[in-house]
Amino acid sequence: MKVIKDSQGIALVVVVIIMALLLSITGASLLFSGLNLKIASNLKSTSVAIHVADAGIQHALALIPSGTTFSYTTETTLLNSYSFGSGYSYTVTAVNDAASSGGNSRTVLTAVATRANSATRKVRAYIGRSASSWAPPGAVYIPAGSGSDANFNTTGTFFITGNDTNYSADTNLDGSADSTSAGPQAAIYGAATSNSSTNAEVVNSLSGTEKTKIQGKDYNAATSPATPSVFISAAAIDVTALVNDLKNQLDTVQYLGGLSRSATDCPTPRPNPPLAACVFGSDALPQITYIKQDTGTVRFDTGSTVTGSGVLIIEGKANLFGNFEFHGLVISLAQGSRGTEEDESQLKLKLKDNARIFGSLFLGPVGDQLKFDVKGNAAIYYSSQAINMVQTRWGSVLPQPARLVAWNEVMQ
Known about the structure:
This protein is of the alpha/beta class and 412 residues long.
């Protein structure tokens, strides 16, 4: 009995010990469960932050203008605390990679993604220039400023198309391609503008019938009136910088005192072989032709036949009339006010009669008043055939979009 009495209460002690153990295990389980939730939450936050930083890289990449090099000689903030949603934001800076060719052929973007009371993640990306086939923004590129006048003044049966168009040889030697056919590349805009106000000016300057004569990407003949292929371009090209790069090429033929060609100088029908003064490069031997007209107007008169291939730069006001035909890139760079329709000598650029351009036409400079007239049977065709000829010869100076080369996470 004494032994039994000495064991009284042991059950209670065992129960208390077991309960203590159970409570400890339960508390530990709850603690670890809470830690697991925190770990999962932190993992999710850091994973999302990486994607936010990558989104910042893609956003900044879209903001870098087309070109051949990069201008970020010092660290430049492209996006500052840009809100991304769910409390995230990113900041993106750019600086040229000193180890790249010339110290400016590649730039480095650094994106830092943050969230309040959460993890921060950093991504570094190396950005170069695209090496793909170059395509202009539009058959006509109008990078006017928001306050400039960029109206079309149009009459006759003119035609502008961003649909890729090939041209045949000139077998009858009359100065014009014998025929045209569909090209292999995707359509671009008939007219590419740089902002909404310029775009509206161009569209509103067209009559209902004229809206059907600017075709290309996103053209819609089913609307009433038709929706012309006149849209804002995502690409931004510095036309003045492009002109400077092109005219400084060693093989550029320069006319620094202006230029005029009459029906007597370059008659129609043209002689065989054609007069050298009436030819500014050929498809077999394209050239860069730079004409600077400080006063007056560059004139290829009605009745004349003037042809060329490659790049034609006209710095000054110009009237390109007659049977003018050019294959490649034509750039009109005229400073100052546009003048009036009554005084045609003051217009920036005017195409009339049977003038044709296969390739693309750029107007400039950016921000100036870019009045462009196209009348009669004048036509502008986007042609990858002509553009490829330019790229093959002078591709190193054509503005290409930025492209992502590589990126990595920066551990902090």
